[in-house]
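If your schedule permits, I should be very grateful for your opinion on a structural question. Kindly check, if you would, that the fold set down in the tokens agrees with what the sequence suggests. Thank you for your consideration; the sequence and its tokens are set out here:
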Amino acid sequence: MTRIAIVTDIHHGAPSHTKRGDTALDLLGQFAGWANTQKPDLVLDLGDRISDIDTQTDMRLEREVAEVFAQIDAPVQHICGNHDRDHLSVAENEQILGTALGHEVIDLGDWQLLLWRADAKIHRDTPRVGFDLPEPDLLWLSHTLQRAEKPTLVASHVPCSGHSQTGNYYFQRNASLSTYPQADRVRDVLAQARVPLACIAGHVHWNTVTTVNGTPHITQQSLTESFTTAGEPARAWGMLELGDTIHWQVFGDDPFEARLTPTNQRWTAPLAPFVSKLAAE
């Protein structure tokens, strides 16, 4: 059994909309203390450590977050979110966190963890504002999953399930910013795996489980989000236990729990549109 403590979307900084960034460092300190008590095999940060302002401010905010993560006894793995990348490069994040932030495979014994650190920068200087998944990031995931020989957890900042954003404060009316425009290709890549898979991401600030083509896709609530908790920070962090099944539990004021059984069985391809079928007849 491998135990992974997870925190995401810390958003340290000034309050912004429903993000209670003013509480972030204190809550992250509480998470660090909890993690040291729980003694997980590793700690996973899924990104958006700060709410971005400008380069100088963002570097200070990221350093303050890094100082709290340094209090954790277990190995800590980081992924960059879009707010970590608005004004800072990956290299600058690496320098602040003291670790490499490229794609990585971590052997967990019976499982493996794929840290799919795909580009999470939101591009605002193009006709279509949003994410744009680089082809090399997709190819790394494809080649790695084709070679996978054991159950695999894929971790990223941006989710790729394509799940509905109905009710989401940020994304119900901005669904195109909730995922990559190439998310359908990501799901095609996931289907190449011949082993049981699960995916976990942050970004969308709520707890969800969506199963697509036999693969459960998990998103975890932000540490400081408040749209589901009446204006108070959710204080959300989680523990993911990997064994014959997956047990995921989110603690805090927006609790969630799920037990999942990943499989290498993929689903029958969806039916063609009914209208096209009738027209052909």
Notes: The longest strand covers residues 2-7. Helices lie at 24-38, 55-69, 82-85, 90-97, 135-146, 183-190, 274-280. The chain has one domain: 2-280. The first helix runs from residue 24 to 38.
